[in-house]
Specification:
415 residues
Length: 415
C-alpha cells in the first residue's frame, strides 16, 4: 500500500514550514500572463567560509595593505602586468572579477566595504547563523530574515514559487512559518516512477482526493500544482539568451535555474543560493591560486545570469554577503585567518552603481578592530533593510529585525 508518508518523502518537493498548521497548505495561483508590471525579485548569494574582502575589493591606496601581505597582496592597477582593476583610484577589483568590472563601469554594480556583523564571533557557524537570522548574538532566534519578510509582507496572489532556495536543504535565512521551496534540480522536480509515472500520479491524486477533510489532501494538491507550474516553464528545453554560457559547477548551474524560474513568470520573488570554499587559511594565493579560482567562478556565474536576464535585471537585485572577512595580515601559511568586516555587492538595473559605499576605516594599526581586522562601519542589517524597503517595497520592517531599529538615515543610498 502506498502511504502518505512515502509520498511526502519521495515526491521530490520540499515545502517547508514550522507553524502549528502545516504552512505548506496554501493557495497556488499562477501569476496572470501579460502583466505590464513585473514583480520585483531579490536574489541573495551567501559566500560561505568568510571571503577575503580585502583581496576581493583591493584598497591599493593603503600602504598597510601591502606591508601586511608580502606574498598574497593583489598588485595596484598597472598596464604592465596582471593587477587590480581600478574602480576609483583607491579601490580595485581582483582581476578574476573582470566579468563584473564592466557592470561597475555601467553603474549597475554597487560595492559596500567594511560591512558585516557587529558581533565579535569568529566562529563560522555562529556568524552565519547571526547573519541569516539578522539577529547578531541572539542564538535563540527561530527563523530567518527572509522568511520573516515573507511572513509579515504577505502576497495574496503568491504562488508556490514565491520563495525558492537552490539546494536540497533549506538555508537558515528562509526557515520559518512562511512556506518556501528547497529545490535541488528543476529537471527532476516531479514524481519519479519511470514508465509508470502518470499511473503513479493518478494513484496519488486519488488517494489524497479521498481524504476530503484532511489537511494532507490540500498538501498533495499544492504539491501537484507546484509541479504543474514548474512544468509550464519546460525546464528541459530551457536555452539561455544568445551568447550566454554558464560555467560548469553547482553554483553557476543553480544561477541558470534561477534564470529559468524568473523567465517562466511563475511568481518568484526571493531566491537564495550559496557558494562555499572561501576559508583560505593556507595558500590563499593572490593573482592566481585558491581565492582567484573561487572569484572567477563567482563572477563568471553572476555575469552570465545578468546577461541571460537582459532587461529583466531592471526588476532584479542580486545581493552578496559572507559571514565575516579575513585578517589584514597574512599568516605564516600564506593564508588569512578569520576576521571581522567584509565586502558586499549589490547588482541590478535599479542599483546606483559605480560607487563604493560605506565609510572606509583605514588599515593603520590603530584603526584595526582588535588590532588585527578591518573595522566595521556598516551593519549588514542596514543593507538588508534598504534592499527590503527600496527594492521590494517592504512597508513593515519592525518584525524582521529583532532588537534593531531600521533607520532610513543609515541607508547607503545605493537604491
Amino acid at each position: 500500500m502506498i502511504t502518505r508518508r512515502i509520498f511526502l518523502k519521495n515526491s521530490g518537493l520540499a515545502l517547508v514550514g514550522m507553524g502549528a498548521v502545516p504552512s505548506f497548505v496554501f493557495r497556488t495561483v499562477l501569476a496572470a500572463p501579460g502583466d505590464d508590471q513585473r514583480k520585483k525579485i531579490l536574489i541573495t548569494v551567501f559566500q560561505r567560509g568568510g571571503v577575503d574582502g580585502l583581496s576581493t575589493v583591493v584598497p591599493f591606496g593603503e600602504k598597510g595593505y601591502y606591508s601586511s601581505r608580502p606574498t598574497i597582496a593583489i598588485p595596484a592597477p598597472s598596464s604592465k602586468r596582471e593587477s587590480a582593476l581600478d574602480l576609483n583610484g583607491f579601490f580595485g577589483l581582483h582581476p578574476a572579477l573582470k566579468p563584473l568590472h564592466g557592470l561597475y563601469k555601467r553603474q549597475q554594480l554597487a560595492i559596500i566595504h567594511a560591512a558585516g556583523s557587529p558581533h565579535s564571533t569568529r566562529s563560522h557557524f555562529d556568524a552565519q547563523d547571526f547573519m541569516e537570522s539578522a539577529a547578531p548574538g541572539a542564538k535563540n532566534t527561530s527563523d530567518g530574515w527572509l522568511n520573516r519578510y515573507l511572513q509579515h509582507n504577505p502576497d495574496p496572489e503568491a504562488t508556490s514559487f514565491r520563495s525558492v532556495a537552490m539546494g536540497t536543504t533549506l538555508p537558515r535565512s528562509l526557515k520559518g512559518e512562511a512556506p518556501t521551496i528547497a529545490l535541488g534540480n528543476i529537471d527532476s522536480f516531479d514524481l519519479r516512477a519511470g514508465s509508470l509515472q502518470q499511473q503513479a500520479r493518478s494513484t496519488y491524486e486519488t488517494l489524497y482526493d479521498q481524504e476530503t477533510n484532511s489537511l494532507l489532501s490540500g498538501t498533495a494538491q499544492e504539491m501537484f500544482q507546484a509541479i504543474d507550474l514548474l512544468k509550464e516553464a519546460n525546464p528541459a528545453q530551457y536555452r539561455p539568451a544568445a551568447g550566454v554560457q554558464y560555467p560548469r559547477g553547482r553554483f553557476s548551474q543553480s544561477l541558470r535555474q534561477v534564470a529559468q524560474l524568473i523567465k517562466a513568470d511563475i511568481g518568484l520573488e526571493v531566491a537564495f543560493l550559496d557558494i562555499g570554499g572561501w576559508d583560505h587559511h593556507v595558500n590563499e594565493g593572490g593573482i592566481t591560486g585558491q581565492l582567484s579560482n573561487r572569484l572567477r567562478e563567482f563572477s563568471q556565474g553572476l555575469a552570465a545570469l545578468y546577461q541571460d536576464l537582459g532587461d529583466r535585471m531592471e526588476d532584479v537585485l542580486i545581493l552578496t554577503m559572507s559571514e565575516f572577512g579575513r585578517t589584514v595580515r597574512e599568516n605564516g601559511n600564506a593564508g588569512t585567518d578569520h576576521g571581522h568586516a567584509n565586502v558586499m555587492f549589490a547588482l541590478g538595473g535599479s542599483v546606483k552603481g559605480g560607487r563604493i559605499y560605506g565609510q572606509w576605516p583605514g588599515l593603520a594599526s590603530e584603526q584595526l578592530y582588535e588590532g588585527r581586522d578591518l573595522a566595521l562601519t556598516t551593519d549588514f542589517r542596514d543593507v538588508f533593510s534598504e534592499v527590503l524597503v527600496r527594492h521590494l517595497g517592504c512597508s513593515n520592517t519592525d518584525p524582521i529585525f529583532p532588537d534593531f531599529q531600521v533607520d532610513a538615515n543609515r541607508f547607503k543610498g545605493m537604491l
